[in-house]
């Protein structure tokens, strides 16, 4: 098997899901056989928005021939990763380079996990929601937009409310009685807004 590990491994993080890794080629005489390529082993060490440590699954990408760089796609935003590089000949893999740590930046969150509308009165509705399953960063706020729908299904003026990220419910007051409302709800990180969840609800006609 090859004798030495690739040197000078460098990681360039391109965005929240993609990184490029570079390495110096090993001297050909240390390959001790036919150079088939290089293997990059990489794994997620930690999700920076959730401190839980799950089973670590190592991923392997093979770059054929004498390439000295490769792309790592499909990374998770706002996470800490480790990687190392090994050279491969027809017999197997050489030793691993020292582990290199890199972090992906924040991304936009997934949609809130649910939006529930309860307690209709003449002029109010209560909203409850769950935080996104994949925050992909630090949540900065939630954005709620809503508008009335009249009997001919025309949409009325849109109202927008920014809600602090640590809230999980809200009572909307001063609504019109016996009116259907359409709600659009999403979470935000400093990078931008995630995908929205929609819901409809009706205030009651009379007490």
From TrEMBL:
Q: Is Plastid one of the keywords UniProt gives this record?
A: no
Keywords in UniProt for this one?
Answer: Disulfide bond, Immunoglobulin domain, Repeat
Gene3D superfamilies per the UniProt record, alphabetical: Immunoglobulins (2.60.40.10)
Q: Name the PANTHER family on file.
A: CTX-RELATED TYPE I TRANSMEMBRANE PROTEIN, NEURAL CELL ADHESION MOLECULE L1-LIKE PROTEIN
Cross-referenced InterPro entries, in alphabetical order? FN3_dom, FN3_sf, Ig-like_fold, Neural/epithelial_adhesion
Q: Quote any Pfam family the record assigns.
A: fn3
PROSITE patterns associated with the record: FN3
Name-wise, this protein is Neuronal cell adhesion molecule
Q: Spell out the GO cellular component terms annotated for this protein, sorted alphabetically and separated by semicolons.
A: neuron projection
Q: Does the keyword Repeat apply?
A: yes
**Where does the Fibronectin type-III domain lie?**
5-107, 111-207
- Transmembrane parts of this sequence: none
